[in-house]
Amino acid sequence: MGEPHPPPAAHRPPDRPPALRARALARSFGRGSAALAALGPLDLDLAPGEFVCLVGPSGCGKSTLLRIAAGLLRPGEGELEIRTHAGRPTSMIFQDYGIYDWKTVLANVRFGLDIQRVPRKEADERARTWLARMGLADFAGAYPATLSGGMRQRVALARALAVEPGLLLMDEPFAALDAQLRTLLQDELLGLTQTTRTTTLFVTHSLEEALVLGDRVLVMSARPGRIIAERRPPFGRPRTGAVRDTPACTA
Ligand code: ADP
Ligand code: MG
């Protein structure tokens, strides 16, 4: 009693700067009268460790946003800042897995580590550790074409996570999987991102999937996509996400 109340959350300075911060970010394709506005302008902040889902109709610019955040595509207008803890890298996972068919499973997972110049022996160990974690220990020497869709997506997950990304970008990663496998991989992904506290931006066209996975769900309008709604879904499973810190939320 008599203690001053803390100021409302919105007025408190954030504990840490966002892992991703976009302001008036927009992108179009083509020039002049033929230009097609594909995205934005939109503002977006991802808190460190937060799992944010982005939902929107086909063609609204979700992949464009992820490709910009991954550095695969130049932003057209606006600002984009990515500030990960200790400069950890950004990983992206694509709907079609994006793994290399001509490399073994082990070589696929080691690929990102090689780019980061992790010494060969350590890269090998880390890659094998992640394969084991994804239940793929026995498939290190296999070629992806011999694996099921679910296993291929696990290879992609192992490759993305082995580099210990500060930001994980996922573009409809489970859309091609059957419902049972999707649920399994959703669970695995939640567990992994919570343990590693990886900031994640997960794109899906399924509101149901977004509500299951997200600490926060952002809804985009049709092209050019802008963020038109934001929800913090009720949750049915334990979470350790950055924004779920009230006692009722961590039960
Ligand atoms: P989503 O992932 O939400 O389905 P995209 O980001 O792939 O949407 O595409 C947004 C819009 O931009 C679409 O109209 C698409 O056709 C267009 N677009 C995407 N990439 C290119 C490109 N490289 N050149 C021209 N238009 C593109
Ligand atoms: Mg897309």
Automatic annotation (TrEMBL):
Natural source organism: Streptomyces angustmyceticus
Cross-referenced InterPro entries: AAA+_ATPase, ABC_transporter-like_ATP-bd, ABC_transporter-like_CS, ABC_transporter_ATP-bind, P-loop_NTPase
Nucleotide-binding found in the keyword field: yes
Domain (ABC transporter) ranges: 20-247
Entry-linked Gene3D superfamilies: P-loop containing nucleotide triphosphate hydrolases
CDD domains: ABC_NrtD_SsuB_transporters (cd03293)
One Pfam family in the UniProt entry: ABC_tran
Assigned keywords, A-Z: ATP-binding, Nucleotide-binding, Transport
UniProt-recorded name of the protein: Nitrate ABC transporter ATP-binding protein
SUPFAM superfamilies: P-loop containing nucleoside triphosphate hydrolases
Superkingdom of the source species: Bacteria
Gene Ontology MF terms: ATP binding; ATP hydrolysis activity
